[in-house]
Amino acid sequence: MSTARIIIDGDEKNAFELPILTPTEGPRAIDVRQLYGKYKLFTHDPGFLSTSSCESKITFIDGDKGILRHRGYDIQDLAENCTYLEVCYLLLYGELPDEKQLADFTHTITYHTMVHEQLQFLYRGFPRRSHPMAILVGAVASLSAFYHDSLDISDPKQRDISAHRLIAKMPTLTAMAYKYSVGQPFIYPNNELDFSENFLHMLFATPCEPCKIKPALARAMNKILILHADHEQNASTSTVRLASSSQANPFACIGAGISSLWGPAHGGANEEVIKMLEEIGDVSRIPEFIQGVKDKKYRLMGFGHRVYKNYDPRAAVLKGSCDEVLEEIGVKNSKKLAIAKELERIALSDDYFVSRKLFPNVDFYSGIIYEAMGIPTELFTCLFAMARTVGWVAQWEEMFSDPDQKIGRPRQLYTGYPARKFAPVAKR
Ligand code: ACO
């Protein structure tokens, strides 16, 4: 077994060895679990820059090479050739489904899409102008009040049912959040439609007239869902794992994940990208905008990533799809796409971005496609949450099969006052 030797204060008598763990792919890790118990030392790593928090078999990223694989399959192959539900099955159960497995899984998910009728009253309690993410956080966490029969996390069958419910109901809850915000009636799921079509139907249909979703729209949605399905131990997934480590129920934990995703440094960036493109307004204003980024007045949204120090492979797939999707949908000469492409061209050749290894991430192009599809900007992060739910539940499920799983409890480097003498209020 490989080990790393640590010498404290240069004193050989104060030296010890820690095991080095070797993954299937990626960098090795020093196993520091015994560090405090045996040697009364912590490691200090704010933002987890160099810390692995778990073992996982689901997703592999090589940030330097721009590689993303789920269960060994390249994201590009999955995005080009699979349905979202095939990828969900792969993430949850470790293998791509055969025809029967896919048919059974599709049936299960399809028949869990409806939500409890009482939930509409929860929605009606929100102000109409609420951000749909605010509604979604509450609605998903509230599922724990409705589905008592799948809350026992020690029962694998109940965990499986909760996973299916979450994947199936997220599109319904997301579409309801939108319908409520525009004052239109909620549209029930339609079991004759596939996953992507059904979501778009719940979003765009009204009871007044038939609504047929264009196949190009459903195909684009399917691809975007796959590209967002999982991304190893990012902030929201780690939030789900941390929340679940206390054995909280799955609906509450996914609600926590959605909250974490909402921030503009994470999933909220897709909404910010569109706002940024609108603010820039014209290709001619890009140099001025780039200068503002360099002066650190603001960040180039949709750029940069903690792990990718190369082109985000998801952004590469989306960029390739952008022209195609916009043409199929009938959007000609998208001004935002023109600004985005020019912004990217300049950023990729400018030393500020090159030296910091800042490349477009998945959020850079997704918003342009969503907008062309007619999806309102405030809904973008909800769509991310909807797609990512399978990743969250797959990682959540994996925790239960890990014998090393413990309640997540980081330590701290205390830098406050040492012990002080207490003085009563009159004497302060
Ligand atoms: N625009 C301009 N400069 C940037 C950007 C950006 N988007 N991102 C990082 N930098 C600069 C920082 O200012 C810093 O420069 P410095 O060394 O001169 O101080 C350097 O690059 C490193 O930045 P950090 O913030 O330390 O990088 P970190 O890995 O912590 O952050 C993050 C990653 C949060 C994604 C960051 O790149 C960012 O804020 N991007 C914009 C928001 C965004 O697109 N988020 C979506 C991420 S993908 C996802 O969650 C789905």
> What Rg do the Cα atoms give?
24 Å
Mean pLDDT metric: 94
Instruction: State the share of residues found in helices, binned by percent.
Output: 40-55%
Amino- and carboxy-terminal Cα gap:
59 Å
The distinct ligands, each listed once, are: acetyl coenzyme *A
Shape: globular
Which structural class matches the secondary elements?
Answer: mainly alpha
Main beta sheet? 3 strands, antiparallel
Classify the beta-strand content into a percent band: 5-15%
Q: Please provide the count of β strands.
A: 6
Task: Tell me the number of helical segments per DSSP (H or I, 4 or more residues long).
Answer: 18
- Element pattern in H and E: EEEHEEEHHHHHHHHHHHHHHHHH
Which stretches are poorly predicted, pLDDT < 50 over at least 5 residues? Answer: none
In spatial order, strands of the major sheet run: 1-2-3
Descriptive key words:
428 residues; three-stranded antiparallel β-sheet; 18 helices; 6 strands; globular; binds acetyl coenzyme *A
3D structure, described in words:
With 428 residues, the chain is mainly α. Helices cover 50% and strands 6% of the residues. It has 18 helices and six strands. The protein has helices spanning 35-39, 75-81, 84-93, 99-110, 119-124, 132-146, 156-181, 195-204, 215-227, 235-244, 250-261, 269-280, 286-294, 313-329, 335-349, 351-355, 362-372, 380-400; strands spanning 3-7, 15-21, 29-30, 59-62, 67-70, 73-74. The strands form two sheets. A three-stranded antiparallel sheet has the order 1-2-3, with no helix packed on it. A three-stranded antiparallel sheet has the order 4-5-6. α3 packs parallel to α18 and α7 (156-181) packs antiparallel against α18 (380-400). The longest helix has 26 residues, at 156-181. The structure holds acetyl coenzyme *A.
